[in-house]
Each structure stands twice: as structure tokens, then as C-alpha cells.
Design a protein that fits this description.
Blueprint (H helix, E strand, L loop, with lengths): L7 H8 L3 E6 L1 H8 L5 H5 L9 E4 L5 E4 L5 E4 L7 H13 L6 E6 L2 E6 L3 H13 L11 E9 L5 H16 L15 E9 L5 H15 L4 E6 L40 H4 L37 H7 L47 H5 L17 H36 L7 H9 L23 H14 L3 H17 L3 H17 L5 H17 L3 H17 L3 H10 L6 H17 L6 H17 L3 H15 L5 H17 L3 H10 L9 H23 L12 E2 L5 E4 L7 E3 L2 E5 L11 H19 L12 E2 L10 E3 L4 E9 L5 E14 L8 E2 L11 E3 L2 E6 L3 E11 L3 E13 L2 H4 L6 H4 L2 E7 L21 E5 L5 E6 L4 E3 L2 E11 L5 E8 L5 E2 L13 E8 L4 E9 L5 E13 L8 E13 L2 E9 L11 E10 L8 E12 L3 E8 L5 E2 L4 E10 L11 E5 L15 H8 L6 E2 L2 E2 L10 H4 L7 H7 L3 E15 L5 E14 L4 E3 L6 H8 L17 H4 L3 H4 L3 E6 L3 E4 ...
Parallel strand pairs: 1-4, 1-7, 7-8, 8-9, 15-24, 26-33, 47-56
Antiparallel strand pairs: 2-3, 5-6, 10-16, 11-14, 11-16, 12-13, 13-25, 16-21, 17-18, 17-20, 17-22, 19-21, 22-23, 22-24, 25-27, 27-31, 27-44, 28-30, 28-32, 29-31, 32-33, 34-35, 34-45, 35-39, 36-38, 36-40, 36-43, 37-39, 41-42, 43-44, 46-48, 48-52, 49-51, 49-54, 50-52, 53-56, 54-55
Amino acid sequence: MAQCKLTPHEFIQNAFSPMVAVMCSQLVDQTCQKNNLSFVEMIQPFCKLSTEAHFREPSGTSVAVRNLRVTMLDVNSRPPQATLARKLLNESVSLSGSDRNTSQQIGGQTVDIPASVPWFEAWRETFLQVQFPSDHEFTKHYIACILVVSSAENNPVETVQHMGLQLQQLQNITPAKLPKWFGPGVLRYYVLVHDAVDGDNDKAETTFNVLKQTYGDNNCYFLQMNSRPPGQSEDQNHLPDPWSQFLIRQVDNQEANDQDSSPRTPAEIGGVTGMPTHVITDGSCDGETSEVNNVLRPGVGPVIMSALEVAQEAGENAAPITVEHHPLSPDADPQNFVLASSDKNHVPNNDVISATSHINANVWVGQGNQTSTATQHGAYLTTSDLDHLRMLVQEFCVKALLPHVEKQIQQLNDLISNKKGVSRSFLSATKRWFGSNKPGMPGSSTQVNAVIYSSDAPELQLRRLGDLYFMFGDYSLAFQAYHAAKRDFNADQAWLYYAGALEMAALSAFMRGEVTQKAQGYMDEGIITYLNSCKMPQFATRATLLSTECLKGLSLYGEAAKQFIRMTSEDSDLRSALLLEQASYCFLKATRPHMMRKYAFHIVLAGHRFSKAGQRRHSLRCYKQAYQVYENKNWSLAEDHIHFTIGRQAANLKQISEAAKAFAHLLTPSSRQSATQQAAFLREFLTTQQQLNTEERSLGNALPVLPLPLVDGSAIQVLLGSLPPLPFQDGASNVIPATGITFSDVTMGETDIRWSKLEELLVAEAQGLLPMIFKPTVQLYSSTTNNTTRPTGIVGEPVTVCVMLQNPLHISLPLHDVHLLWRFKKSSEVTSQLIDNEMVPETADGPVLTQHLESVVLKPDCIQEVILCVTPRSEGEMQILGIAYQMSNSAAQQCAEPSNITQHTISVPGKQVFTLRKPIPKVRGSQDLHDRRLEISVVKSAPLLQVIFRDLNSEMLCGELQRVTLEFQNTGNAALTALYVASTTPELFSLGQPLPQQPGVHQVTHVVAHLFPGQTHAVPMWLRAPDTKGITSIEMLFYYENANSNSNPRYRLVRHSWQLTVLSSIQLTTTALRSSAAVWNGMQEILNFTLCVKNCNQVHDQLMTEISLLQISLASQVWQLSKNVVVPEDVRLQAQEMVHFVAVAQRQEEDAGAKRNIFSDVTLNQNRKATGSLSESPYIDFFNRHFAGSTKISADGPDMSAYLPDPSVSNTGSEINKDSSVKDMDAALKVEATIILRWKACVTDGGGKKRSAIGQHHLVVEKIGTPITWPLEPTGPLQQQELMGPLRIFHPHDTSSNSPGASEKYAPIEILQKLVTYNVWHASQVIHDFKKSRLCVTPVMLTLQNCSDRCLVVKVNTLGNSSSASAANKNQLYSPHSSSSFRWVGLAGTWLELGPHTSGKIYLSAAIGSPGTYDLGSRLEVLCRSPGAPEADAVSQRWHIESAFVVSSAPSSGL
């Protein structure tokens, strides 16, 4: 806590030290002025006794007097007038300061407070000295007078006698006026001053002997001074000056209306009245003799008094006419001053209102405007002269003053003892019995301060005795005297005297070390009586200053704070500020409990009152102290008030840097102020910062760091290169540049992984193998990338930086001339000279070209992305430091009239420094990592590839083919080579080149071998849309190398990605069925492909499509399309229309020497014109890329054996574990073919614009008899579950699905039943004469076809009418039903062995007994088994044929 220099006992003892008047002759002052001192000033350092003295009390007990200090004043000195008193009072505070602070730990928080409070001590000391001597106490009355004459007088003895007469006149003035005397018998002490150099020693000795004979040896002293001759004067500037602490600034003796005495602070302008021109004592006044012509003389010490207190003591009143707002209230205005009116006794020339023009800059600025030159004091005094001065005080106190005090105590004690117990008057006795004993009570009818005692009244004699005891250290007897006096004063209702007695009784109890609760109550009651009953706040203030020192000495800090706060009022801002500050320190010192918040609150109040008093320096200090407590407490409004006040006070004190920092704290993201208030704060900051910049501009300082806008260092992104240009129209072509990398790609983690995989494929393809440690190329640096290595920039290529600027205010924030700050070091220079663009203006030949944004307006409460770029022009190292800009206020919010916007706009240059957080090492204990994304190494040359896509649409139909032109241009300053391209969807692209022979690298395509700077190369590219509709992201990565293999970087990349909207086109459904046509005369097997094509376009779609079918192709090594196809002519499918047709495929003959034709085409267009074979580019390219993942490439073409996965694989395991016989039988249901349908569409958009499109769909036919649809219809979760079949639950021990059982050793029953097909051949109609022959026997040939790859043994059984097979095969299509009364005759059953895919014949005969229509395909059963298998293993084949045979009866021949 801030400590005072004096202990409580020392302070109280000095406050009530004996008063001694000094009367000097004119020659004495002249003698002393040789030392630049008056006599009173000269003796001040020696007024305290260094030894112990004694006197006897009436009982004979010796009382020791320790540390006795006497106060010597010129007998003509008077308190200053009001204006002068106010000026001295303010300057005593403003000229005192403490730069030394101490830290105090309270409740886990550290606060810095002043180590001492010299301003409070100076104000307190002068306040006690300035008080007018009052008749209710005698501590401020002169107890003695020292008459000082010079030996150089013509007649020193006569001069002494004349001075004695003057003193007698001052004592006998009726009514009594200033100065006040302790009693009628004032001690007189005579001092003869002798100048040792200029004086006559004999005359001096003779004169001193006469004085001793006349006044006594103990009442005279011979003082010799100026013993050092002028020629022997020594420079003593290096020695300490004992008089400096007792001297004050010279105050001109002028009237109150003089300029120096005019008010100089806002508190002086209002709330005070003039100094009274006379002093009222005993109810009388005399204005003539009380004119304050004798102003404070030099050397008396600071005599300062509150103007209002002086006025109140003289009976004047001051009424405040305005109300003070709470300092935390937004309505508080530091310009609101308390004004008061003066009464008729106020001198017009002292009118403080008229003195507003005489403002002293010392108080407003906080430092004096006068230059004090070093004045040497005591130049003619030797050490012996100083000893003489010290001895003078010693002799005066011990031989004269203390014996006089002892005599006065004895006389007063005798006087009081003689009248003790006798009632002074009947009136006082009546008051004791019937009057009130408390001031201000209803029973008290006596007016306040109306009781007047005569000078010899016993009550005053008792008070006089108590004052003598107190001043000279007998505190026990002093307490008894005060205690007895206060009862008498209470009985007489003399409340002023009563309060004074209570005050001194409490102080006496404290000084003797016996403080009780009752004694503390005395002081509290005395203060309240001063305030409420006596209306004397100056004495209440004095009592408070004394009481609080006692309470602090007893560690009662809470009680002391209450008393300080009670004395704060509106009549004196300076006094209230000082007392509130002391109260806050008391709260800080309190321990039970800690009162940190009370300390902060009251130090704020003190700062507010200091501000009103014009003490800006102390106000600033208080607010700074308070901020230590309110900081980081989320009390934003309180913090805003503190910062705003600190800024205002610092600005008025010309501490512009401090003011700018304070105003900057108002512009924080946590601000809860309204938009209007924030605009005012911003304007204050800009105005202050503008002044600061003006001051620092001449010093060449760097740009200041402004509080706004906020920059998120972790969100800074650095892009090597410029942003990609926007698409444009070049004539009829739609030109789309490669998208490259944008700042929106920084958060795409999965996408980065895909790009890295593509880069890895490209590097492996172009360089032959991957390096030992592969690091993907980083072109966009952010907080998510590895930034431990420096980015590499290229001369002439821009470096683009994305900065996120946050405006936390509720108002818009205009920024102008926004650009990046950089530092550059050229690699060619030997010395490490750094070049930056912060202080040095940019030149045309500078190393870096900086982009400047003319204007950026940040919207309220937003985070805005600002993109800036710099272009290096030379090789070296470039570091991006931050951004610079001009910040201005929003003029529209400040000015209502648009015409005044320009003059209200304030613009301030500033910067924001980029701060990057250090990355956290992944391995604990590893070396520190540094984020180097802003440290760019610039190399001289490198190629730069620009990729342009022409005629690239963003909307396509499913399966649509589109031709796009790729243009490559090398815009760099070096040649490039090895241009490759890769994509995550290679099946959608075709550059007219065959697939590479190595499996797994089909994603990479070599484009260009060499490209020189400025050279352009165009490549056609076909694009096929995906088969499913929706939005598809298509990505391409271009790779190229520097022709100089030793360059850095060795290779560079270009990205391109776009969103392709795929619209529905067609849906293709097909089913492969075996033909029941005869396999005859060596013909092979025949398949029928039933196809259904549907236009999936909806009627309500924005795009309307009309689809025409062009060509159907079959890709198979086994099957080949027949040229005959059943399809309607000129088919044009509108929305939701579909067409059905059948295509026939025949198995190709196996010829080892002939080359098989894989593709077979059938034209479907109207004119039957050829549309090009599928084997041509780009159709074959997309076919190959569509199946490249599962197809082996051979020299003859694709191996179609891998096209169709075996359906049994998913059920029975891998092909390796299957038995060869099972695999041979599986071929019976395999098709091993792919249908490719090419179509043409006429697309009409919403605006009526039409375009033509061609497309290609691929459909894999996996199994005979199974419908295949592509693209699939979108299904929901329930539909998907239905398609997956029923849910099966397995027992834990059920391993049948995993064990290699019959399913792997034997073919499934579904395949075994479809190994052989058959048909019957016979005449279609026969005419038979049943009269001649009852039976008609017709020959039937049964043909059998083995559809598997295995040799089979086939058995044919003919069935009778009663067999179940006959009923099952009955045809329901005949009307009426076919006849069944026929029988197979002849061969009833036979076995036949058929080789793989071979056919056989069996001849049968059918006997028919009546005319009719017969189905000869019924009643046949065909079984087959493997050779060597038992007959029981033969499986009946599931095959259905219908063959109608008509038998007609021959007409009768005879009539």
C-alpha cells in the first residue's frame, strides 16, 4: 500500500506543534538576504529539537518532551486569498508525483500502486497550515513571539522597544483580529543578529549586554551569521540544501484579481466562491484592519486552503446548481462543472467566473511552465553559523519556552481548581437539566455556533490547558482536560467547542496508546458534529485526516475508508479525489475480506474527481491503476469507460502514444457498445493516431500497428502463381482455362489425397520410378499443409496471398490502398542488405512489384477475404511481413449532410503484422518446427504451362460423346518437356492414343514431348459423359518438366476440375435367348437379343431430347451379329417413349488359322447408311477404357474372356477351385458378349436453342435368359433389400457355405438342366386316307445341340399319353387344343454322345389315328450325363418346343 513518510504519531505531533511568531526589523531581512533567505526561512530546518527536554506539571512530576517541533511564522503572515489558495492547493498536488511503484499480491492478483503519495501529503500539510485560527481552540494561536533586531541598527535597543510596542498593539486590538494569541501573557524572546563580516563586534556585544540586563539572560540570544567573507565564498552546489524542502515557489504579492491568482482548473471555475476579506471573531467584524494585504511571505511553507472551506469559515455559502453524474454513467461529461454563487461579502474583483481566461497550463498539462534556476542558499554561512542557528532554537525552547509553558500550566490549573464545581451561570445550569445533550436534537433550541465565551471563561481556560498539555506531550492530562471540557461544552450546547473537545480527546487517547471503542466514538461524533451541526466541513476534514491516520495505525482500514468516503462531497473535487484515493488504498490493505473490487471502484471515482479538478495526470494514474483490476474480467463497459478516460486524459497531457493505445483498446471484438458509440470511439482513435503519426513521421518510424481489422494468422494462404482466369467467349468457341488451384481448395482433404495419388502416378510414369521419399507438390500453403520448407517462387510469376480480415464492430470499416508488406534479399548481392517497401517507396526497377487495392470496405460484424499479390522481379529471398493500408472512419455515420462527408473523414496509415503459430511436432522431443509459408525462395526461370479447353460444355447427356480441343501454351521463360495428363476418371477421356501396355497405368497419357517458351500446341480430346445422371466432379492433372533437369523445381503441375451436370438420355434393356431354329447342315448356335430402348427424358425437364438409334454393335469372340434385325424404320423416341427390337447372333466357327472379328455392327438408322465401325476412334477408345480395369490388352485386341464374370463365382468361390467339368458346363449359359448402342439426340433447351449430340452406351450380357438393364433405375433401401433376396440366418456350426462340397465338384442343377437343346423336323401337313389305312405314320427327325464345352451322353425317351411330361407340355395356344391321340412308334429310347457345341440327329416315327392338328414337340424327354457317369445321374433338360402337324383325311373316291 502507498505509505506516508510520517507515522501517525509524528503526523499528529507536527499538526499541533506550538506556534511562534517572528517579528524582524528591516536590516535583519537585508542581512539574511545575502543567503537568498529570509530569517524565517533560514531557521526552518532547525525548528526541531534534537535533544529531550523537560517541564514540570502542577503535581511536580517531570514530563519529558521528545521530538519537539515549533512552527515559526512571520507575525505579519496571513492566509492567502481564495483564488491564490486554490492555485496553491492545485499546484501542491499537480507538482507532486511519484514514479516509483510497488507490486502487491492480493487474492492471486498482482497490482502496481505508488510506493508513496507525496501529492496527498503535500495537500494534507498545506491544508492543516492554511486553516484560520479559531476561537474554539488554541493550537493555532501564537504562544510566543521572537523579536529579531540587527546589530547594524543605529539604536538596536530602541528598535526592540519600538517592536515591543507594535507587538503590544497587535495583542490589544479590540475586537481581536489576526494574528491570534494564546493568552495575554505571550512569551517574548529577543535575538540580536550580527553580521560577522560587515558588523561592528564591539557595538554588537554592548547591545547584547544591554538586552540581557533589560530582558534577562534566558530571553536573549546573540546570533552571529555570514561569517564567510565574500572572497572566500565556495561553490556548494554539490552539497545538499537543507532549506529546499521548506521553501515554496515565490508567490507575487498581488490582489486576488491578478492573472496568477486566477482559476486554472475546471474545479476552480465552478463550485467555489471568493476568499473572504475579513475574519469574524466573537460575532464582530472589522473590514478595514482585516484587508489581506499581507499575503503569504516567502519561507512560511505552503499555506493552501480550499476556497469553499475558507468561505464557509467566514460565514459564506455556496450552493451547487448542477448534479454530478456517476463516472461510469454514459451521461457523465467531464466538462460539467459545479458552479456556485457568492454572497454580498464577495469582492467583485475576485469573481472566479471572469477569470476563466487565466487557465494555467501547469495544471492542464500536468507540469510546471516555469524554469526554476538553481538558487544557492546559505552561501555566506559557515558550519559555526549553522550551529548558532541550531543553538538558537535549542536555547529558546529549553530556557524560555518550556519554563513559560510550565508557568502557564500552573496558572491555568490554579484558576480552574478555584472555580471547579461552581456553576458558571444559572442559564448553563438550567441547560444541563432541561436542555438536550446532543447536537441537532429536537430539544436543542440553541442556534449552531451561537454560544460565545469570553476570553477568561473557565470552559476556555480548561480547553487552553488541554491544548498546552497536548502540544507538549502530556497526553494523559490532556485527555482529562478535554474530557472535562467536552462535558461543559455539551451542557452549554456549544457544539463547535464540543466537537473540538471530542476531536482532541480522541487524539489524546491515541497518542497515549490507550485507544478504546469509546475513544474512537469520540472522534466519529466530533466529525459528525462538525458536519451536521456546525456546518464546518473544514474542521470535519481535518478531523478525518487525523482520525484516519489513527485508524490506519490500528489496522482498521475498513473504518478509515468509511471516514474518507464520508468526507467526499460536491463542494471540492480535489479534496474528494484525494480522499477517495486514500479510501481505495485502505480497501486494498484490508485483509478480512480482501476488497479488490472496492479498491478498483473507488480509484475510478478518485480518477473522475481528479479529472473534474483539472488534475489530469493524477486522473490518468488512477484509471491506469483501476484497469489492472478490471482487465480480463469481461466487464467490457467498465473497461471501455476506463480506456476512453485514459485516452482523453493522455491526449490532453500530450501523451499521444498512450492515448492511442487506450483508444485502440476500445476497438475490440468483445465490445458491447452500440454502433453509434463505436463510431465515436473509432473517430477518437483515428484523430489521436493521426496526431501520433504526425509526431513520429519526422523520426522516420515504421508504420503503426492498428487495432483493426483483425487478421487470423492461421488462416493466411499463400498461392504460388496467380488465380486462374475466368471462362470467356472467343468467337463461336467457349474458352475455359484450366481451373488450377484456388483458395477454396484448402479445406478439401479427400480431394488433396486424390490429387496426390495422381501426381504419384504421373511421376512414376514420367521418371520411370518414384523417388525414395515422395513429397507431393504444394502450390497452396495453408495451416493444413507442411510448411517446414520454403515455398519456391519464379521470377515474373505472382505470389498470391489470401488474408481473412475481421471487422468486429457494428459499423463498416473502409480501407484504402491495401497492399502487402515484404522484405527482399537479392541472391546476387554479397552483403546481406535487405529491401522492404514499408518505409522506402517502390520504384519501377524494384525487386518486387506490389499490387495495391484502391478500396476495401469491411461490412459490420463480418470476416472478409482479401486477396493480394506480389510479383518478384529478381532472384533472391522474399519474406511477406504483413499488410499495409489506410484506415478511415465511416463518414456517413459521422455526418448527416453529404456535403460535409469529405471534411469529416479521417484517414490513418497503418499495418498488420502476420503472426503464424508454430506447428506442433508430431514426434515428441523432435526439433522445433517453423512455419515458413511466408518465406519464399525466388528462382530465376521455369516453364509455365497454360491449358485451355475449347467447346467444353457443363451439361451433357448420359453416355454423350463430345469433342473438345485442348490448347497448351508455354508462357514461362524456359522450355518444357514430358507433358503428361492423368485423371481419376480415365474412362471418360480419349486423346486418340491407345492404352499403355502396362496394367495399372491406364490413367496416364503422354501428350507432348517438347514445348518451347511461347509455343502453343493443340490436341483434340473426346469426352464421354458418365452413364448415370447427376453432378459429377471430373479432375485432370497435367504434368510437365523443365527441360533443364537440374532446375528447381524439376516438374510442375496444372490442375483442372469442373462440375459436369449429367442429364438422362436412354435406358437399354436386353435379354439373350437361345433360338429354337434348327441347327442343321453344319450351322452353329443362334442367340436372339431382345432389346428395349427407352428415352428417359421427362416431359417437364428443361431440356427436351429426341433420340434416334444409329447402330448396334456386339463385341464378342464367340458371337457375331446377323445383318437381319427386326426393328421399326425411322424410330425417333420422344420423352418416355420406348422401342423394342430383336437382334440375332450366331456362334462363330472355330478356325485356328483365321483371325476372329471381335466386333459386328448392324446399322439402325433410316437410310441404312454406315456410321462407322466400332473399331474406329474414339468409339473403340471409350470401349477399351470402359473395360480397361478388367481387360488384358493383346496385340490382336482385347481379350473378351475377362469381360463377363462367371455368375457361379459369387456363389461357389474362385474359378481356381472349380472342377474342369463344372467350368465346361458353365459355358452353356455364358454369353461372353457386350452390346454397344450408338445413338443420336436432338437437344432443345428452354430457350428453344437446339443442338445435336451423339452417344454410346455399353451393356454387358452376362447370362442367357437374364434381363440386363443399364443404367439402373434408382432404388430405395427397401427395394435394394428386395433385390438382394431374403435374409438367411446361419447356425454358428453351419459351414456348408464355406466347405468345398458338391457346389464346387458338381455343376448347379440350373446349369445341368440347360446343357442340351433340341428340335423336331417333319412335314407340316399330310393328307391321309384313313379308310385305306387306320394309322398315318409320319417320319420325324429330332436334332440335338450340345451347348456346353464338354462331351455329353444324351438319351431321348418317347412318352405315352399318361405321362406327366405330356400334360406339362400341352400347348394352351391352340384353339381348339391340339389333338393328343398320337403315338411314337418304332424307336422308344436311345443314347447319343455329343461333342462340345456339336449337334446330332435321331429319327422317330409318329402314328396318328385320326385327322387333326398335332403337337409333335410334346411327349419327348431328353436326358444327359457326362461320359462315364452312371445312368442315374442323367438330368432331364428343360426345353420347350412346339411343332404343329396337320393331318387331313383324303376325300372319298367312290360316289
